[in-house]
Specification:
With about 240 residues, this protein is mainly α. The chain has three domains: about 90 residues, Serine Threonine Protein Phosphatase 5, Tetratricopeptide repeat; about 60 residues; about 60 residues, no CATH class. The mean pLDDT is about 75.
Length: about 240
């Protein structure tokens, strides 16, 4: 980033000269409120708009001389000088928040803003398409991972519909309850084998009680509010 041998492009305006100075908590680099180059180019633009390009070109050359650029010839037309001023302002004040006001002054804001909006919309559409593709791929992955559960459920539904004519198979409530009890037992065993849960059981239990009480209290308050708002007047 710093040094003559660096091949990386970076924004260097108003930055210290070395990386060591950049790491300091403060710097002697001042941020200008208005640059002399801005004054020169604005004056050149004013003179050129008054059909005095010969007086505007030396002011442009002062800015170019500071940047070690060759001077412009003095025989340029008003249109050519205007194009040079626009170009000089672009390269001289890059990333200095003057471009918008220049375009508005030159009557080019709508044209460039429409182009910018178009670019932004294209990027947003591209991002949306990529997101949709990613989401669809994630959904496909999720379906592939859990599709067997769905088919197992469908298989159970189909078997249940096919076996409705067998009276003995209608009394499956006891079997379902036994399976649920077995699952609860296995869940309790897993909890008991987890030392993190057992060691923090008092904290988890207190949190569960507080969450339950808060949920019940919120439901009661909402029910009371709805009753008072919609039903109590009708009863009276």
């Amino acid at each position: 980033m710093f040094g003559a041998g660096s091949d990386r492009a970076s924004f260097r305006k108003y930055l210290p000269r070395t990386a060591a100075d950049l790491d300091k908590s403060r710097t002697a680099v001042n941020l200008p409120l208005m640059r002399y180059a801005d004054v020169l180019l604005l004056l050149a633009e004013t003179l050129n708009e008054r059909n005095r390009p010969a007086d505007a070109i030396p002011l442009i050359n002062q800015v170019r001389q500071r940047a070690d650029m060759p001077a412009l010839p003095l025989n340029l037309s008003v249109t050519e000088v205007k194009k040079r001023i626009e170009h000089e302002r672009i390269v001289e004040f890059a990333l200095e928040n003057t471009r918008f006001y220049d375009m508005r002054r030159w009557g080019k804001r709508k044209k460039h803003c429409k182009l910018l909006v178009g670019i932004v919309l294209i990027r947003l559409n591209t991002t949306f398409i990529l997101f949709q593709y990613w989401r669809s791929s994630q959904m496909i992955k999720l379906i592939k991972e859990h599709v067997y559960r769905f088919f197992v459920m469908l298989l159970g539904v189909g078997i249940g519909i096919g076996l409705r004519s067998f009276p003995i198979l209608k009394h499956t409530g006891i079997l379902v309850r036994l399976v649920i009890f077995a699952l609860l037992f296995l869940l309790g065993r897993e909890v008991g084998q987890n030392p993190k849960i057992v060691d923090n059981l008092d904290t988890l239990g207190l949190q569960a009680i507080l969450i339950t009480l808060a949920g019940v209290a919120g439901s009661v308050l909402c029910s009371w509010f709805v009753y008072r708002l919609f039903f109590s007047k009708h009863e009276r």
